[in-house]
């Protein structure tokens, strides 16, 4: 009797299913991570700018890079002339979530940020800050994301993580 050492139909089928599943998972991940950031709403109050977004990068490096690549565009498009000046300013980028809401009368509204500059009514949004940028001392900038803090001491200086 001759023994055949090639692959059986069942083995070839399993291999094709695994390759197809791997390709599908890779495609889904690629689409998920390459979605463009969408700015849903913008609020400006004095020298503070608030951007509410969807599809924001998930890594600290990705978030800072997105800001670096888009800050000039945001300054012009959304009339925020203080961005990039040597004055003190702050920009907060938050998750758009369910959008603006009416302030509910409840024991604690610490999870909402309400804007006096918006018309009364649905002028509060849930605080889910993704990136907090503070510019101070004329040239220094800090980037805060959850428990992580990065500083840039000087206009074109390297951005360094501050130890916990």
- Indicate the percent of residues in helices: 25-40%
Helix run count? 2
The ordered string of helix (H) and strand (E) elements is HEEHEEEEEEEE
Q: Give the class from helix and strand content and strand pairing.
A: alpha+beta
| Quaternary structure annotation | single chain
Distance between the termini: 70 Å
Mean of the pLDDT scores?
85
Strand order of the largest sheet: 1-2-3-7-8-9-10
The total of beta strands comes to: 10
Overall geometric form: elongated
Strand content: 25-35%
Largest sheet: 7 strands, mixed
* Parts with pLDDT < 50 across at least 5 consecutive residues: none
Radius of gyration: 23 Å
Key descriptive features of the protein:
164 residues; alpha+beta; 7-stranded mixed beta sheet; 10 strands
List strands and helices in order, with pairings:
Blueprint: H1 9-33, E1 38-45, E2 48-54, H2 60-77, E3 89-95, E4 101-102, E5 112-114, E6 122-126, E7 129-136, E8 140-145, E9 148-153, E10 159-161
Parallel strand pairs: 2-3
Antiparallel strand pairs: 1-2, 3-7, 4-6, 5-6, 7-8, 8-9, 9-10
Q: What report would you give on this structure?
A:
The protein is built from 2 helices and 10 strands, in the order αββαββββββββ. The protein starts with 8 loop residues before the first helix and ends with a strand. The chain has a 7-stranded mixed beta sheet, covered by helices on one side. With 164 residues, the chain is an alpha+beta fold.
